[in-house]
Every structure is written in structure tokens, then in C-alpha cells.
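Researcher: Structure for this, please.
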Amino acid sequence: MQTHSRYLSCLAVGAAGVMVMAACGSSSKKSTGAGGSTATTATAKYPPIPAGPIKFGVSTPLTGATAAFGTATKAAFENVTLKTFNAAHPDGIDGHQVQIEILDDASDVTKAVNVANQFVSEKITAVLTATYNPAAAPQQLAIFGKAKIPALVQAVSDDYTDTSKWPYFFGMGSSDKQAGEAAAKYIGKHSEIKKISILSDGSPSQVEIQNDMMTALKTAAPSVTVAKTATITPGAVDVSTAVAQLKDSNPDLLIVFAGFGYGPIWQGIQGANWSPKILTVASAFYDGFSAMGALADSAVVITTHCTTPGHPPFPKALTDPMDGYATVFGATSTNYILFDTSDNGPLELLKLAIEKNHSTDPDAIKSALESLGNQKLFGTVDYNFTPTNHFGLTGDYGTAVCKMSGFSDGPYRIPVVAP
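Model: Predicted structure, C-alpha cell format:
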């Protein structure tokens, strides 16, 4: 998972102890190059694909405080992602094998920078997952950008919407601005919401979403007022004082913006004998979700890849990997359609981009991604990158406010769009 996910087919352990996974297809339509690899002819503007495999990088915390996320990422890559990609594309990408290298960034800034520099030195073609550490991600992405390494990742900062500043960044999810606008639109649809209160951990990413929401509310719901704002320390264990203040403000909607540490927040609200209507962010699905209990029944979440009741059947291209994720993770996680697009999605888009110009040159990939037009991945999820928009997720599975309980589609555990 990128927010949270990852996979395998041909497994080998490299000399440095990193996991390397290779797609084992070859193409009879391509000529054989040096070393037994296949070769294709690039367009005149870009250099051809070098002989040998095409290598992608994954940076994730396999050790450290957030190792649970990293080990889930590794398990997904090892057990599902590349395996399903190989099955769908036995010829790999333009006849070249695919390798994915997973390196441990330990959710540490220094180690994350070292991982980024190692990927640069190895001349990987693209990055599929950047570090989950919000303090380290900009440094990694800056290194990738300077080296012209395309990064198709889950990163949300509004700064990344500037394609002139981040020309090789492509967001697989939504930006904070899109999240804030979705929250404001939801509030504006509900005339019963006249005043809101906000609990925030004050971290830059959460403050950005809050500010984006407040800006969008000026248009979507200008009469809504803020009754109370309380700030807690990120990861705080005791939130009772803040919860008491928010309860006393008697809001129609409690908004919770935190990067992590949701368990104590939900426990604090229940300990105060309070059951407010809640709006929060997708992190709450992956951190302390079980602690919500009955609070989830009256809670909604800003996220992507939600569905609607009675939707058409999903195509096999989507259900095959979702079946794999459901087998590996079961009920320990949510929204396996998100796993598909955050992990398999970059591979599918990179295949299209590389094969368009028959080149792994970074500018060839960038140009192709920006000019592919709308692509319906797995027959379901729409992406449409342009030169001025590198947050390409759109359509029915784009940013929305969804219910936190009552998942759809059985083992796939997909949230349902909130009315």
C-alpha cells in the first residue's frame, strides 16, 4: 500500500539484503539485445530503453516507529502487486523485465535521504512509493526531482500541485486542497450543520487541510461558524482537556485532523460520554480504527476510491489484485480498491508511458504521462494527468466524503460515499 500497501513474482535477495522482484515475461515481438534482454526502437526524440530489466524503487519503513506500515507495504508487494502485474502483462514493459527494489527508510529523515540517493545512484526508472515520514518526503522528492526520476506516489501537500516546481512528481491520490474542498462541499450540502468545532494535532499537513477547508467554506457554506478549535500534541495519549472544551462548544460537526494517534482521541471522546457527528481524514482508517467503536456509525471521512450502493460489477482486472490483498490482509485493513490504484496503478501508468515513446528517459515518461489523456485503470478508476495537473485522479473514485462504517463489496471493504 502506498498510503498503507505493496508485492512479487520472481524473488531474489540482492547482495545488500534488499528485496528485488522481477517480472519474468519477454516479448517475441521485440528484438533481443545485449545480455539476452529485449530491445525496442524509441521515437527519434528520446533514447531507447537500455538492455536489461526496468527497475523501480519503493521507500518504506521496515524498521522504526512506523514499521507496521512498511511491513504491510512489503507484504503487499511481495504477495500481490507484481504477481498480478506479471499475470496481466507477461511481456513486462515493452518486452523488458520489471524489477522492484524495496529499501528501508525507517521513517527517519537521514535514512530516507540515503535511500533516495541510493535510488539515484542505481539509476532506477521511477519511484512507486516515497517515505511515509512527512518531514522526509519533501527531501526525498526533491532529490528525485533534481535527478529527473518520475515519482508516482501518494503525497498530498499542496506544494506538489505546482508542476513547474515538481515536474516529475505525479500524485496517485488527492491533494490537501482537493481534500479540503471535498470537506467544505459536504458541509455545504448539510443545512443542519451550522457550527463546527475542530480538533487538530497542529502538524503542517493537517493545518494545510484545515486551511484549505476553511477557504473553501467561504464559498460552499459561508454561514457556517467555528465554535471551538483545540490543538493537541501529535500522538498525544491524554486528550481529555481538549475533548472537554470541544464537547462544551456543542458543535453540529466535530472535525478531527491528525496525522496519527487516533486511538486515544476516540477513547477520549467516548470517555467523555460524547457521541458527536465526526468528519476526519483517511489516516483514521489505518491508525486506531478499531477504537472508534460506535463512533464510526456517525462518522464520515475524506478519502478516495469510495463506491456507491448497487454499482456495476467490478472487472476481473480489478478484482484479481483485490482478491490477493483480501487474502493477505483480511479485515485488518480497508479499501482494497485503493490498494490496487496506489500500488498497481503506478505500474500500469508507467507501462503505458514507457511504451508510448519506447523509452525510459525521464522526459519521455513525463511527456507521455501528461499526454495519455484519460486512462481508466482496471476498467474502473480514471486518471488524467496534464502538463498543469499532476494530481490526475478523477471521476467516480476521486476525492469524496465517505461513511466510516458499513463497508461495501464484502472482503474488499470499500467505503461508501456519504449522502
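Researcher: Any notable elements?
Model: The first strand starts at residue 10 and ends at 13. Residues 1-39 have pLDDT under 50 and may be disordered.
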